[in-house]
Amino acid sequence: MDFVELEAIEGLRWSWNSWPVSRTESHDLVIPLSIMQTPLMKFTDLPLLSYDPLICSRCGSVLNPYARVDYPSRIWVCPFCYQKNAFPRSYAEIGENNIPAELFPTYSTVEYQLGHPGLINPGRVSSTPGRVNSNPVHNWETGNGSFSGSVKLGGLSFSSSSLSSLDQRGGGRGVGVAVGLGPVFVFVVDASSSEEELQALKNELLLIVAQLPENAMVGLVVFDSMVTVYDLAFTDCLRVVLFHGERELSSSQIIDLLGTRQQLGKTQGVQKHGLILPISECEFNIATAIEDIHHSPPLKPGHRSPRCTGTAIQVAIALLEGCSVHTGSRVMVFTSGPATMGPGMVASPDLNNSIRTHRDVNSGHAPFYWKSCEFYKRISEKLMDLSMVFDLFACSLDQIGVTEMRAPVEKSGGFIMLAESFESDQFRKCLRHIFRRDEQGFLNMCFDATIEIVTTKGVKICGAIGPCVSLRKKNASVSDKEVGEGGTNTWKLGTITDKTCIAFFFQVSEEQRPQPGTAFFIQFITKYRHGNMGIRKRVTSAARRWVSGGAPEIAAGFDQETAGAVMARLAVHETGKNFPREVVRWLDKELIRFASKFGDYIPEDPSSFRLSTNFSLYPQFMYHLRRSQFIDVFNSSPDETTFFQVMLNREGVVGSLIMIQPTLSQYSFDGPPIPVLLDVCSLSPDVILLFDSYFYVVIHYGSKIAQWKKLGYDRDPNHESFRKLLEAPEVEAEQLVSQRIPVPKLIKCDQHSSQARFLLAKLNPSVTHKSTYVVEGSEVIMTDDVSLQVFIEHLQELAVQG
Fold it and tell me: How far apart are CA 790 and CA 797, in angstroms?
């Protein structure tokens, strides 16, 4: 079974593709029943339907290919609750040879365009509004009720009734709508950054502002020891509103001080204030305000620069709240140091007091940590109530308090990046990627998403782990057991991209035991605001089969890659409640249970232990997960650990596995590049290694290759093959760097150099300083970690004990 091909059709990866009929049998599988879903995954052939979906009157599921349809009676039977639903009049001409796209067997995923399709001209718009469609709600049938003619999509024929549903360009209904307001961006800038850093940041912000669509709205907040909010409508001079950095004010107080409170009797909607304006009305003013930002030096020698980051974030959120923004908004924080005053304080102003470490947090010696975490937890709740997104750009050689700010970033689904400088290519590429446009010229952003799951009666929903928040909407399909964000069948996301992946967890119901061989269904309904400000609903329907506990279909349907990614998320979730050593112990215990359950062996005989190919890679994934930066926090700061964990919790299966078990490719004169073992034995003086750990891409030159480079052989025409050998990994590395966001750090190093540690730390230490037999000239790793071979031997010994 090719799970990658299935993912390309459904956007889903299942840990088990066949589920046992009882809860006891599912518990014995060790790996939980789970699905990794990429809600907005890009499909080559996705129909965009310009009419509203048909919804089951009992369970709320959407009409899908698994529904049974009685064409003469114009009735469809819901596959989830077996409710009979009548087709509306617009489906009067439906028949076996004339079906809408949502019933076509090859479309397990369809997307609906609800209401009006959004803005028409995202660029520098003219003052003449587009034509407004007089009939905002479209029916499946054509206007005159005729169904003649056909169209082909992806090699499939459809009647003209489906034409309205298959507009791949997204225009759908009508030629256009009146140009409205776009998304809102509030830039929160740290003025305590150094002059060089601040200038690089200002240059990038000016570039972004110049490229924003005219209907996008902007605001500017600058902070050091004070918070400055710029009035972008005042043209005579720069007019600002100031807040003291140490005062913690309520949202209501801030709104009153800003003067943005909505007046009684006024119509609801975005209130026009000079503090937030469309870019078409304030492009010059905001550019002038950005240019006006100046560096604020430390007040005392030996002290950190004053920063009231928490107060600035509070003010930015209250600014958006007071302006009643409901079209999608982002609070984008750019900082290069820790908050040293006010709410959310992370570090003492005195440089003699170092910022907290993992040991300080675990031992209770981080004086500001818990109070700051509570503050940002309240901030995250406010963000989700208002459907806002919190983005954090932390560019500094030291920590800035990312760990404390984890809740608002993770819960809102906002962007997070750690870099060394605002002058780095990493920062520039990431910021420009966020503001990229789609094929129609709209900002490639989605806002205010919700994901609802509908299941058949035998399936219970336990929860989700990812950049989402539980809406606590319970129904009969919600389990009492909670995993991550549980207790609901609906989750909220502040923003979502085509790469965002969420892990959903399920269990088998005890109330009603299904029959082996029958099918069960799960439907994912994702509703979101598109970059053109129109509302869309994407529906994915999937089916699998129930099987008895010992059926061979269970082993055949095991996806070990998905299992590795799911267990990594569960392990990261456990680190929030337990110490790393306890999490490793839990992983080991679950792995032993798994090997004992699915291994073939003679009891008490470790040498007889075997795992079939469907299961053989899973222990290897767990070995690398135990040693990964997600669990083993040695040599990582709290900020780095938080960044790694947040990224893992939103990445798909392939990306997650690269984070857990990096890839290693070898380039040599012997032939084309080949993948090699992630082992110290792969190091050789006459080869080049390309190492990809998702966050770092390392080009490692063997000692002979490095020496030849220093001698300039690559510039000698007689050594053309050597020049090509050096170029090949660099081209591949550039492709890896360009395709990934956040942009990984590219490191080029020679064998035995200090930078080689990025590679050595991830290699399997099959040869260490303690090894009995070491081949002369071979690489040795100085570590006390056990090798993969020793780890597997211990696993076999414990698994066969039963």
Answer: 11
